[in-house]
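re the bet — no i am not wrong, look at it urself. input seq straight from the record:
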Amino acid sequence: MLQMLNAFLTVQALHVAAALGIADQLANGPRGVDELASISGAQRSSLYRLLRMLTGAGVFREELNGQFALTPLGTTLRSEAPDSVRDWALFVGAPEMWQVWGELRASVMTGESAFQRVHGAPMWEYIAGHPNLGSAFNRWMTRQSNQHNSALVASYDFSPFRLVADIGGGQGSTLAAILRANPSVRGILLDLAQVVADPAPLVQAGVINRCEVLGGDMLEAVPAGADAYVIKRVLMDWDDAHAATILRNCAAAMPEAGKALVVEMLMGSANDPGPGKPF
C-alpha cells in the first residue's frame, strides 16, 4: 500500500526526466551529473537526487564511476524509441493535468468533470489553446495507435470496403495502417481541425492521396458515404449520452449495409487488473 501511495512521486520524477530529455542525452552512452546538468540547465545536486531516485525504479543505472546510464526500461523515455512513452510522461505529469487529478474527490462526489472544474473548458477545447500540452497528447495518441495497428489490420479484413472513415482518428496513424494494408481502399480522416492539421502518418505511409482529411466535430456530424466507420479508443472518453450521439451520427451517415467498427479495451472480470478499468 505504501508503494501505491508513493506512486505519485515516480510519476512526477518521470515527467521531469522526460521534460529535461535525460534519456535522449544518455542515448549514446553514460554521462556524469555535471554534464547532464549543464545540458539540461538543471541544478546539479537536485538532478543527482532525481536520477538516484529513478535508479531505484530501474529507469537509470548509476555506474561505479558516478556516471548514469540508460536501462532497457529507461530507453522508453527516449523521443524516438520504437516503444517510447515520453509524450505520455510529458502529458500525464504536466501541472495542468496534475491539478485535474487533485479534484478527483469532487468528481466522485458530484459526477462532474474535474477538468472542466479546474480549467473552465472541456479537455479537447483546452488543449487546442495550449499547444505544448496538446502536442504531447496528440503525439502520444499517434504513437499509441502505432503500437496497436498491426494487430488491428491482422485481425480484421478491411479489403471488402470501398471507403473507410476513421472517426476521431487523431493524426491518422490507424487509417494509414488500414490503407497501407489494403491498396484498393480509400479513407476519410475526421478529427478536430487542430489535430488533423498535421496528418504526418498518412504522408509517411504514402497513402495521403487516397485519403480525405477533414476537420470537424463528431458530436455534430460525421462525413457521409463511407461503408465502414472505425471508432477506435474514442467512446471510452465520453459518457453514455455523448457516446450514443457519436454512434447515432455514424448510423445516420452510413448506407444501409454499412458497418460501425468499434475498437476498445475489454474491461476484464470483476477483480482482475486491466488497462480498461481506469476508464
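see?? The longest strand covers residues 186-191. told u. also The domain at 1-90 is CATH 1.10.10.10 (Arc Repressor Mutant, subunit A). so pay up
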